[in-house]
Amino acid sequence: MAGHYRALAVGVEIPLLGFGTYLIPDEQAADAVEAAIRAGYRHIDTAEAYGNERGVGEGIRRGLAAVGIGRDEIFVTTKLFPGMGGVFKSAREVETAFEASLSALGLEHVDLYLIHAPFTPEQRLEQWGAVVGLHESGRARAVGVSNFNVRHIEELVAAGLPLPHANQIELHPWSQKPEIVRFLEGNGIVPIAYSSLVPLSTWRAAPGHASGKTDEMRADGESGDSPFKAMAAKHGVSEAQVLLRWGVQSGYPVLPKSTDPARIRENAEVFSFELDEDDMRVIAGLDRGAGVAWRTGDPVNNA
Ligand SMILES: NC(=O)c1ccc[n+]([C@@H]2O[C@H](COP(=O)([O-])OP(=O)(O)OC[C@H]3O[C@@H](n4cnc5c(N)ncnc54)[C@H](OP(=O)(O)O)[C@@H]3O)[C@@H](O)[C@H]2O)c1
Description:
Layout: E1 5-7, E2 13-15, E3 19-20, H1 26-38, E4 43-45, H2 53-67, E5 75-80, E6 83-84, E7 87-88, H3 91-105, E8 110-115, H4 121-136, E9 140-146, H5 150-158, E10 166-170, H6 178-186, E11 190-194, H7 215-222, H8 227-235, H9 239-249, H10 261-268, H11 277-284
Parallel strand pairs: 3-4, 4-5, 5-8, 8-9, 9-10, 10-11
Antiparallel strand pairs: 1-2, 6-7
The protein binds NADP nicotinamide-adenine-dinucleotide phosphate.
């Protein structure tokens, strides 16, 4: 795992393999994050809205102690919950929320702080100004956005604000977002891929785990004719590894989430094989447009 990084425009290196923690309850987060660090992950993704920053922070401390590395060897992302129901955090409240996240995590700084979603023009401009201030204070080494489309980012620039260093969006073979990715890459903004494993039949299969997958997608995920099953067999890896490999081979940091220690280890093994040109060409033809993890937040639906 070590050595697979990508530089953000601000010079900070982001590991391509990250560990996602959405839907991991606070009381399970420490064990999951510790297992991830033991398995070689050096990048952990959480958010104020996940309600697990305390457990994630404990897992980071336990993991670092277990493998004998320091804070500077792990990349930690958290996200500002912008507000909801028309009530959004002011610039001052952004600062308070950030301090609360640092305190829950038990950290003095984060490596990346993101605005979780671009709900309204007023909200995103005010909050982005505040987030840029946190970067200037040194407590967020890099800053960015999540679920923003091209127009949302152009609005920040038109308001005289700096470009984000990253935009975390749903990216996998079924939601490739070529227009947004081209814009991000052309402007030095790193696309971070979330929900890489959507095409798997096991993705958020647990009861109560919301998913916008259609019946057709479910059937395709289970089908023995799935192109990912064929690629997995060809390379002697799992379908999950094929999907994650597509992400990192495309240059996107990926954030697989699991609470199963065996899957956590499996998902980390994405640098020992390569998808070939045929695989990449087949996958390029599988795009279905918008994502399914969070339909209202998806940048394609917000265009
Ligand atoms: N910015 C945003 O708005 C946003 C939105 C969504 C996600 N995210 C971030 O991205 C991370 C990843 O996205 P995600 O949690 O939606 O989904 P994901 O990582 O793509 O997939 C997780 C699902 O796949 C299952 N799974 C994991 N590894 C597997 C394997 N090797 N084989 C079979 N099934 C496997 C997991 O079940 P088990 O846990 O039971 O193994 C879980 O149901 C999140 O945790 C979060 O950090 C951000």
